[in-house]
Amino acid sequence: GMPGKSVRYLLRERMPEEYFELLKKAGELAEGMGFNLFLVGGIVRDMVMRVENLDIDLVVEGDGVVFAKALAGVFGAKVSPHEKYKTAVVRLSGGHRMDVATARLEYYRMPGAFPEVEESTLKLDLYRRDFTINTMAVALNPHRFGELIDYFGAQRDIREKKIRVLHSLSFVEDPSRILRAVRFEKRRGFSLGKQTLSLISSAVHAGFLRNIPGRRIFHEMRQILQEEEPIRCMERLQELKVLEAIYPDLVFDEQMREAFRAVRETLLWFRLLYTHEKIRAWFLYFLAMTESMDPQAVMALGDAFGLRREDSEILLDSREKVREIMRKMASRPEMLPSQAVEVLGKASLEEILYAMSRCRSANFKKIFSTYVTTWRNYRPPVSGRDLLAIGFSRNPDLGACLKEIRNRGLNGEIRDFAGAIAFAQAYLTGIRG
Ligand code: CTP
After folding, report:
1. How high is the ipTM of this complex?
2. What is the structure's pLDDT at 298?
3. Is this structure's pTM higher than 0.95?
4. Tell me, what's the pLDDT at 368?
């Protein structure tokens, strides 16, 4: 076919230097092995839209596993092959990872649906994907490095901001794409194509969501809750009757929306301060989703999502922990830092942030925020090892003494090493004497 336009400049501009070099080397390696190599999927979509994305997905026309092993060899990386599906994950030392898939060779033998034999395997691989915007590829072999391949009008749909399926059986083949459609729609002001919208309605109406394991739905729901704007996704899922199809009592009502808004606000605050700290945002939203359900309903929702009993119970435990925190805080209007840490210290960051989103009082919000920004990382000025090194003897009171130093340190009564030692001296001899 006609060569596509070059996006070599985009590769250069949108990627860190080391990724660019890596992709070039990978292309050269593939060439030497007689394979065609392509960068595909979300990363190409995001590159064209000038959105950051460093999840490298590669497709090999040839043998993806053989290629991945060779690639790992060249870069001294770890490779986890999946022989059955002819896929592999290559993990580089810097923490980068690349997913390698095979455009299967048997497609060569399929009856001539696509006359361009040279590109037919890649084309078929891309044709099986969810939406047009995800079907672009960039050639990586040296003689066509950077060539953009767009068989299905992805660039047009990105310009028009449309989510469109490639064919009318897309949601029949994979009903979880209904949730994916909503997730992509609510990013950056896209909308569903008319035909795609009507295919979704039919699929939901026909009950196709019941044809896939709940776990798959949960996986997609979790990704939605991990997005920037889960509220708009939930509204859309409700409108499309997807929520009730998942679980009859799952209704995005005013109360749930309010809980979501509070979570969103808390997350914005947190992310502003801790841009690099990973947080399971979905878990906070999941707590918000189940906030007003009784425990049986939570377990039933867990079933609908294909969760194991233990996992649903973890959710219920978290909920209980959060409620306990709220009760304890409410019972003590004034709290020393050490008392706050006593109450919050055993909760996960997600539980703390969720509790923070639930609380109305500015006074308590302040306690939560100070815990997150300061107290949770507090290190007392001396450790047990320090005390032993100085000559305190190993005895049962040492632990209690350290705890007291930590508490007083949190409360500002002990400020430095000397103060801590003086305290330890007095405390331990006091107990002895
Ligand atoms: N895909 C699909 N059907 C699915 C799941 C995934 O066709 N049910 C395809 C999509 O075309 C997607 C690719 O597999 O581009 C990789 O999937 P995933 O990593 O989930 O999505 P990304 O497009 O990378 O999206 P994100 O921005 O969320 O990473």
Report:
1. 0.93
2. 97
3. no
4. 94
The two tokens of residue 200 are 């979704």
Query: 332 CA distance to ligand 1 centroid (A)?
Result: 49
| Ligand 1 binding pocket, CB closer than 6 Å | 41-42, 55, 129-130, 134, 174, 176-177, 180
Choosing from 43, 45, 53, 130 the residue with most ligand 1 atoms within 8 A of its CB, the one to mutate for a pocket test is 130
CATH number of the domain that 242 lies in?
1.10.110.30
| Domain that includes residue 146, residue range | 8-160
Helix-, strand-, coil-residue percentages of the chain, each rounded to 5: 60, 10, 30
Residue 101: helix, strand or coil by DSSP?
A: strand
- Give the HSE-up count for residue 31: Cα atoms under 13 Å, Cβ half-sphere: 13
State the Cα angle at 320 between 314 and 321, rounded to 5°: 90
DSSP 5: P
Question: Residue 109 above 90 pLDDT?
Answer: no
Task: Examine the domain organization and report whether 365 and 313 are in the same domain.
Answer: yes
φ and ψ of 153, to 5 deg? 75, 30
- Condensed to tens digits (0 to 9), the pLDDT of residues 362-414 reads 888 999 999 999 999 999 999 999 999 988 888 889 999 999 999 999 999 99
